[in-house]
Each structure stands twice: as structure tokens, then as C-alpha cells.
Amino acid sequence: MYILGIETSCDETAASIVEVKNSKIKMLFSAVSSQIKIHRQYGGVVPEIAARNHIKNILPVLNKALDNKKPDAIAVAAGPGLISSLIIGVETAKVLSYIWQKPLIAVNHLSGHIYSAWINAETFPRFPILALIASGGHTELVLMRSHYKFKILGRTRDDAAGEAFDKAAKILGLGYPGGPIISKYAEKGDKKAVNLPRPMLNSQNLEFSFSGLKTALLYQAQKDKKLKNKIPDYCASFQQAIIDVLISKTTKAAKKHKIKSVMLVGGVAANKELRSQLKKEVKKSLPNADFHLPPLEFTTDNAAMIATAGYFMSKQKKYTAWNKIRVDCNLTL
Ligand code: KG4
Ligand code: ZN
Fold it and tell me: How far is residue 210 from each of residues 21, 242, 308, measured CA to CA in Å?
């Protein structure tokens, strides 16, 4: 079976063809046309500009994907995300479904991030699964007892982890997007150099809050006369504060629900330090659980994850007629 995935929920225009054979999921083609260079000058994504660029990019990206294989089904991210961006992908998928008379699958972008851990995987995660989704728009701990059964155990009360990285980079005058820049500087910094809070680390629930951390960083940076020489230290300390909270809550949730597989997904899962520290912690404090990560290229937004999530929906016959599909910018799991 071949599935075409389409993703346009934010500022990436992406298409992918995924092959499912002998229950293995293999990415045959994946193209992501990024608009980072365009939005960088504004310090963040401008929805209107993102939508206009999706219109420009969607057909070239799709054409490349379709050089490869004619799909048996079409999976498209229908939310959450920017409404004007989502519409471009969904309208395109509708047309293809109608013309080719192929089933259409409306995928939740967040379930796409979760299923990114199945792409090209040799061993699949085992249920019950705990997924930490950490992206620019979301920070959620999700319990899965079987395919497409999601239970949110906790989420952020304010900023998402990726958003916190982006805002911190802005405060430190480093550019956009913040995550990759901060993690690069952090490699040369001392993570104990700047004293920053670990919001909600000791709270009993599984919720997160990152906006106070960002404000603490702002106050420290504002009064520090030597800030310019200490950017790596600031980056390493800020990154470690986020990692500490993410790891602590993930481990707590995994113990509570007797999890067999822990997975880290979403754009922040590209963070090397977080990847390796969480892996170590799972090994140490959850000896009966294994740890799963998507390949690096499928951590940030892509269409292979949408195609893969679409495959698992198609197994449960979760199709939507081309004339019934709707975008939903606040779609939840
Ligand atoms: O999943 P994604 O591509 O888009 C959303 O669905 O939001 O995530 C983008 C987010 C951005 O906030 C970006 O700063 C963050 O992921 N990110 C990182 C790294 N690479 C991307 N955060 C920390 N470390 C990284 N290496
Ligand atoms: Zn995303």
C-alpha cells in the first residue's frame, strides 16, 4: 500500500510517499519546502505570508512526490495549526481524492508527530505507550493503550517548549527559530552558570508551564552587564531547565501508568541533549520500558508522519469523504 501525505499546518509545505509492506513502514519520498528564511525577518511565522507561500509551493512539492508512485490513499493534516495554511493542504487533498477516486484521511497533526516514531522503524513501540510531544505549538504527555486511543495526561498551561526556545532566542538576540540556535550555543556553555527556575517541577500533576522561565531569563539577561560574553552559558542553562522539567514529568507519568514504551516526538525532539538525557533516564529509572525516537529529519514538521498516521487510521477505516473534510485549527487528540 502506498500513502500520499500532505502537510501545510504552519510554515512548511510538505509531501511524502510512504510504503507499507509486511507491516513495515518505509518512507519512499519526503520533501519539505521550508519558509524559515522568509519568516526569519519578522521573528516568527506570519500566517498570511505562510498561506501565500503554501499556494506557491504545494504543486512543485507534490509533483516531486508523485514522480515516485501513485498512492492508494491520501492523508492530509486537517488541524491543529494556522487556518489559512491548513486550508491549502486540505483543498489540494480534496481535489486529488475526487479526481483519482482515492480515499481521503483527515489526520490530526499531533497524531502525525506521534506516528513519526513508526517511520522506517525496525521495532515498533509497545502499548501502553507514553508520548511526549514537544513542538512549537504543543507540549503534551499522551497515553496510548492502543492505536488511535489517545489520553492527554498533561499539557502546558502557557508556552510550549519550542515556543519557549524561540522566545528565549529572541530575548538573547539570536534569531529564529530559537531551538536549533540555542542548542548550538549550548554545546559550548556551562549549564550550571545561570540560575533559572524549573517551573512546576515538584507539582503533583503532569502539567507544564514555561512562560515564567522565559521571564526569569529576561530579568537575568537585562541586568547582566556581561551578557554578550555569556551567550553559550545562558543557552546551556536555559536548555537544561527545559530538559529537567520535561524529563521529570515524563518519567513520573511513565511510572504511574506502567508504560512499556516512551517516545519523544515533535520539533523539540531534534534537540540532541534532550534526546540523549531522556534516553539515559528511561534506561535508568524505567528498566522495563524501551525508548523510541523518530529519525532526526522527521522530528520537525514533515509529511511522512502524516502519511504514517494516515495508514493507521486507514486500518480502522477512518476515512472522510472529500466533500465532508473540514479544517479545524484547534483540533485536539
Ligand atoms: O514540530 P515543529 O516543526 O512545529 C510545530 O508543530 O510546532 O516544531 C518547531 C519547534 C520550534 O519551536 C523550534 O524552535 C523547535 O521546534 N526546535 C528545537 C530544535 N529544533 C527545532 N527546539 C530545541 N532544540 C532543537 N534542536
Ligand atoms: Zn508540528
Answer: 42, 8, 31
